[in-house]
Amino acid sequence: MIWGVLLYCLLTPADGHHARERLPFFHGHVFENSPAASKVSGLSIPVRRINAQKWCPASGIHFKLYGNGSDDFRAFAHHKLGNVMLKTSRVLDREARSDYLLSLGLCCRTRASESAVFEVASVKVDVLDANDHAPTFRGADAVHITLDDTTALRSVVYRLEAVDPDSGNNAELTYISIPRNGSFYVVPKTGEVLLVDSLLGLPSNVKFYVFARDHGWPPLTSKGVLVTVAPQRWATRPTELAGPGRGGRSPRALLDPGAVVSLNVSEDASIGSVITSLSPTRFTSAAFEVVYPESESSPVTVGRDSGDIMISRRLDRETGPFLELNVKIQDKRGVYCSSID
Predict the structure, then answer these.
(1) What pLDDT sits at residue 15?
(2) How far is 135 from 218, CA to CA, in rounded Å?
(3) Neighbour order of strands in the sheet with 25-31
């Protein structure tokens, strides 16, 4: 007899716990910024599913929501369909709250009373995102970059980052630059600014705007960030320090006669990487040729038509901490030799 009473006491709470877990669950959604009294889509609770007659055999069934945020919705019974539905009580903002987990209570009176309410269902409402925020850039509205004009091509010289408080496609961004220029390329997915053409010989700064645009509908675009790149002339050594025989003629060359261009390159640079480019911006046509060392012993090559200095073999700082090149640049008006360390 004692064991029977103890078993009854142990089983009674457990049975009540399982009864609570067996409450029917319903799920719906509503878009943010929808006007008040908007219906929650995808959520329709059949009265027979919650067995309302079991709790209230008489007339006067009344439904009410409980839980954190329940005042943002109201429940009503659609008598023709025999369903319980939800409508919003105010305009919702997904950025403030993205979902609600509520309880549907049933009251047997015409007025809700806490003591007469039975919990008959669990309800979850998702607040879906609307594309109501334009991307914004972090930091200033203008960026000024001073860049050495011998910077290796495909170098990342800057990165811009925009944020969008929306979600999903509404928060996915694409970066664009206006106007397009031949020297820099903005990676659409990352906002990285890449150097894609040589800055040697550019007479003035390069200016362009960068915008961020989301993938929502309609797509929203940020305010532009003005990017100004000021090419900084590489440091040169006097002709007498460059060694004999490096002066020569100066037929309106891209580089000054007898000048020495110094470049720093990581020994981990991959084969095929472009270190820099002696772009013939001041020539009608030009040809480039390595005079020293011979091509068979040099770990770098120079494009005959492009002037790109490219790594052709693996670099090793321990065996060769520096490399000196003599490059011949020829145009229609003469020949000029340059030295590059």
Answers:
(1) 42
(2) 13
(3) 25-31, 117-128, 99-107, 62-66
Q: Which pLDDT score, from 0 to 100, does residue 56 have?
A: 65
pLDDT, averaged in runs of 10, over the chain (341 residues): 43 43 88 95 86 62 88 85 88 94 80 61 95 91 90 89 94 95 93 89 89 95 96 58 40 50 70 71 66 76 79 76 76 53 53
Please give the backbone phi and psi of residue 46, each rounded to the nearest 5 degrees, phi first: -65, 135
Single-letter amino acid code for the residue at 298: S
3-class secondary structure per residue, 118-181: EEEEEEEEEEECCCCCCCEECCCCEEEEEEECCCCCCCEEEECCEECCCCHHHHCEEEEEECCC
**Alpha-carbon dihedral of residues 213, 214, 217, 221, nearest 10 degrees?**
-30
Per-residue confidence (pLDDT) for residue 234, from 0 to 100: 58
Q: Look at residue 276 in the predicted model and tell me its pLDDT.
A: 76
Structure tokens at 250: 């100066």
Supply the DSSP symbol for 41. Answer: B
* Residues 147 and 199: beta-carbon distance below 8 Å: yes
DSSP, collapsed to helix, strand or coil, labels residue 53 as: helix
**Alpha-carbon radius of gyration of the chain:** 37
* Nearest in space to 234 (alpha carbons), one of 214, 255, 249: 255
Q: What is the pLDDT of residue 246?
A: 39
Number of H helices, E strands in the chain: 2, 23
pLDDT at 323: 77
- Residue 11: count other Cβ atoms within 10 Å of its Cβ: 10
**How far is Cα 165 from Cα 180, in angstroms, rounded to an integer?**
28
